[in-house]
Amino acid sequence: MGYYSEHVVPRLIDWACGMKTGEPIRERACRGLTGEVVELGFGSGLNIRFYPPEVDSVAAVEPSDVAWRMAGDRVAGSRAPVRLAARDGQRLPFADASFDSALSTWTLCTIPDAQAALREIRRVLRPGGVLRFVEHGLAPEADRGVRRWQHRLDPIQQRVLAGCHLDRPIVPMITNAGFTVTDLEVFYEPGAPRILAADSLGSARVAA
Questions:
Q1: Residue 163's CB: how many other CB atoms inside 10 A?
Q2: Is the distance from CB of 106 to CB of 41 less than 8 angstroms?
Q3: pLDDT tens across 59-96, in order?
Q4: Which residues does the UniProt record annotate as the domain Methyltransferase type (predicted)?
């Protein structure tokens, strides 16, 4: 990783994703988490304050040392113990059926092989375990103009934000990894450009 990707991008993400307008969305994404949780793309710990009381512990998956250091005070103040447990979401060092819940917030846009990461999350969830997610990605099919601009600007977005994609089809990616989506909200984040803010928020369980 170069200096920009390693030191600047984590701070940009902490600033952009830490805005108060996003807090109600984070809170909704964390609802329903229980027991032992694996959090994909932990970042600087912005979700910690929204973990429900039913969370017993959190295994953080985060490749950035800078982001983990930025999370220090939040981790120290967390009611549920949080540990840095893995660096690469595409290859998780956990046994099968190790976790009750999984959480991913604005992460699948950036993981190089997001399908591999989702398959790994599916593998480490216990039977009946739930994946809670909120992700930005490809706009709804009816908004063809937004989609065209997402496709056009995606290469620039990847360069500016170290691999972040604008146009990944979030829900098909989740279902293709062997999940059944059990509830889903699709919306644009208020006040943000539509190409950046087509969100999918919901729950998924391992498909039978």
A1: 13
A2: yes
A3: 999 999 999 999 999 999 999 999 999 999 999 999 99
A4: 39-132
